[in-house]
Amino acid sequence: MMSKALKGTLAAAAGVALGLTGAVAAQAQDDEASTLAAGNVVIEDDGIQLFGDANGKDKSPHASMIALDTGDGDLRTVYCIQLEVNLEEQYLHEERPWDDVPVEDLPKVLGVLLNGYDGTNAGELLEEAGLASDDYGDVTQDQLAYAATQSAIWSLTDGWVLDTDDPTGDDVADTIVPELQAWLLENSEPVDEPDLEPYFDVDDSEAKTEGSTVGPFTATTNIDSISFAQPEGATIVDENGEEITSLSDGQVFYVKFDEAKTSSVTLVTETFTWTTPAGRTFVPVDAEGADVEGQRLILAEEYTEEYTAEVEFEIAVEEVPSESPKPQLPVTGSSLTTVATVGGGVLLAGVVAMVLMRRRAARADWGSDA
Which pLDDT value is given to residue 17? Predict the structure, then answer.
């Protein structure tokens, strides 16, 4: 049986159907900025007061435990990344790429975040650092873990140095916070900026046809998994020929057509699972969306959610005249090569409106409270 070389392109298309209200969905498509994540600041706890200096100036900030309200009932732990700038909690905070945030050493900050307190792991963090105890006195594990992580971040962004004699406003914290900060800094490596948007791509460079089967195709994505319904006229299978109904990064798959002929299939996704990464940065904005001078924040926790989104992409196999002589195909008698094109609605900007927080919805909430 003859194998025919395939060449392919990935074409991005619009037409993403989101599980949003009509108004928000329309705004997500009409306003490019609406793809940015956003949320309202919530101070969950006053935290532990720290004492020290930043760039030669005495400071005594509270490591207040801060979160962003995602608008869906969940709060996501964040940290301040500018010690000498006020937290403007009355404003909506909107996502910005690192290049738009005037803070140095963000790769080192993210390294600390990935090792530090993410809002859920205080006990495990203290245990790993060798600082666990049966009695923390008047402070909690969460307050200690947050304060040490915040202090470590400020040491990178603002030259913050804890007072060696009186580092905090609590006797237990006086011991644990400096030691945990030192442990975090010693055990963290710089990490590059995370992806702000989900993406999905298909590599068809190695694909060829064998009878009614076309492939291999390889999925490249930062989405945890994307599920789909089997297309009409074909079955999506793995390397062993077993039927599959979801794709993840690195997944190799084939299209097994019902008949050995040139054809096309359309995959329609049903759901996708996306892990929002730590390290995304946020700035305060006014009612028009313009940046306001104020404390910048960085997201501390990863979290995974499943979303419903219909996204179509098509795999088309066509026979076209070759540019150079090829073996004659017995059916047509023509010198042909087979071209596979993968295209369609890849997960693009609109989906991001759902990924973390909905900018328009959050802004509406903020405006109603003003």
Answer: 20
How far apart CA 25 and CA 176 sit, in angstroms, is 48
Backbone torsions φ then ψ of 322, nearest 5 degrees: -85, 155
Residues 176 and 118 in one domain: yes
SS3 for 268-290 is: EEEEEEEEECCCCEEEEECCCCC
In this structure, the answer to whether residues 22 and 43 fall within a common structural domain is no
* Cβ proximity of 123 and 283 under 8 Å: no
Asked if 52 and 74 sit in the same domain, the reply is yes
Among all chains, which residue has been given the structure tokens 């909430």? 365
Task: Please give the residue range of the domain that contains residue 261.
Answer: 4-30+195-276+302-369
Decide which of 319 and 268 is more confident: 268
For residue 58, count other CB atoms closer than 10 A to its CB: 9
Q: Is 128 helix (H, G, I), strand (E, B) or coil?
A: helix
In a domain, 288, yes or no: no
- State whether 57 and 86 are in the same domain: yes
Quick: pLDDT tens for 113-157.
999 999 999 999 999 999 999 999 999 999 999 999 999 999 999
pLDDT, mean over the chain: 76
Q: Which two tokens stand for residue 6?
A: 């395939």
Phi then psi dihedrals of residue 87, to 5 deg: -80, 120
pLDDT for 362 beyond 50: no
Which pTM does this prediction carry? Answer: 0.71
Query: Which token pair is 141?
Result: 């594990």
Number of domains in the chain: 2
Residues 193-211, mean pLDDT to the nearest whole number: 81
Alpha carbons 311 and 35: distance in angstroms, whole number: 17
Classify residue 48 as exposed, middle or buried by CB count within 10 Å of its CB (0-12, 13-18, 19+): buried
Dist. CA 27–CA 215, nearest whole Å = 39
How distant, in Å, are the alpha carbons of 234, 338, 344 from that of 320?
A: 21, 6, 21
In the numeric block, the tokens 């005249």 are attached to: 321
Which of 41, 118, 82 has the alpha carbon at shortest distance from 279?
118
Q: 6 falls in which pLDDT band (50, 70, 90)?
A: very low
